[in-house]
Design a protein that fits this description.
Length: 78
Amino acid sequence: MTLREMLAARGISMDAAALLCGKDKSTISRIAAGKTRARPETVVRLARALGTSATRMQAICDAAWLAGRRHDEQAVSA
């Protein structure tokens, strides 16, 4: 499950997630898209906002970041 899927399943918008986490919407969007790696305190805040464990949220955020890195590397090598 991705961060976007988790937000949608809980009926939480990016705006609402950002507000709950004390972050900008752009930060949450970049984390979901794998453009930036979530800081530990952001992972904890997201986990609390979405009712999941910090461990699960870290795995979700890391998977997005790794997928984003692979995509960037493929774009550079093309």
